[in-house]
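FW: tagging you since you asked about this chain on Friday. Here's the raw sequence from the shared folder, copied in full. Didn't touch anything.
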Amino acid sequence: MINSHTSEYYHKFHGACLVEYLSEKDKQDARVNRILLFFLLFALLVFFAFSRPIFAQQPQQENTKIVQSLSKQTEFETRIKQKYYGATINFPTKGIAHIKKIKYINSKPVKINIVEINTSVNPYLKVKPQTASKQKLNSKATVRRIAQRGNGIVAINAGFFKPQTGVPLGALMIDNKILSGPIYNRVGIAIFENEGKTSFKLDNINFDIKAINKGGEIKIDNINQPRMLSTYKLLYTKAWGEFSPVAPKNCYNMLIENEKITKISANPIELSENKIVIQAPKETIQAIGKYKDVKIEINVQESLKGAKHIIGAGPYLVKDGEIFVDYKTEKFQAIQGKNPRSAIGFNEDNLIIVTVDGREKKSVGMTLFELAKLMKDLDCKEAMNFDGGSSSALYVNKKIVNSAINKEGIAVSNALVISENDPFEMKLSSLN
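HL: got it, structure written out here
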């Protein structure tokens, strides 16, 4: 039975105990909290001690790179504006400048488009030749289409080609793969990529092609080129097309499959990745055919060893800093006179590509010597002519910027394309 006295006793005794218990519990909780806080602070100190180099140094390095990149771009833009004072200039992306100007020669106007590219300012820029088709050489497309397929910011028509088929008339090597050989020992531009740096070199192109077996070595005159002499020994690969050409009189096609002779015929022979054809005079085919095993060797000349890409065209315009137009040696007599022009050159800093409008009242075009003088005036230490005339077309930032025929230029065999890799995608690919 609980009465008022019992209640008073309970509150006096048990209430006091409860207060004492709660007071002791608060002290214990406080001690536990202090211990937990100590461990938490210790863990945080350890974490920051080990993570500080990552979080402190990396942003500093990245910030330094960004500042350096901005500084280089500012310097690049300043130099371009000083060099082309009064001209119309825009910068499609870092390291690329597009200049439009009018030059007067003998009181006649000439419209000129110039693009200067500096891969040191923007290491994500890639300079690479592209063909009209990935599958075969005998194909044509406009410079715009070739540029768009290669995600190009800038593109210019490049080497000469056979108008009927689009087959390049000159040397072409892309990604270390030789697609076609030189003619008349004409000049070409070689593109090197070493440790993230791009460099260029001009030289007269001469590939060394041999068929080798137990009987010895036989020199092959060219690869994937139309026949120029009946005595020529030619090599045809899958890049030429689906079939080799018909063998001319007193010549045969020899099929080599996986380094073994499997067929000899005057008719076209199907080509594939592991099938190549030697087309040569009868006596040459008989000499090679004595043995079933044949090895083909294709080598770039010593002066261009290590090049990743090569485009042949010509003639030379500037050599060792001086005007040098060897149109007779390279057999370019047919392209004299004032015409639309395309050209490429370089100095220690920049790659320089140029188109000159012609065959119109507002722009009369240039001769090869006038073009050579222009390239020298633009400070090119080396320069060469690209295919010109109706082929001449320059693509910048999604449009053709020169006065090309039909506003687009004719369909061509190949173009030099300047694209920009996505740095974020490159970092991701490097992690894979």
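FW: The radius of gyration is 35 Å.
HL: agreed, and The mean pLDDT is 88.
FW: great, closing this out.
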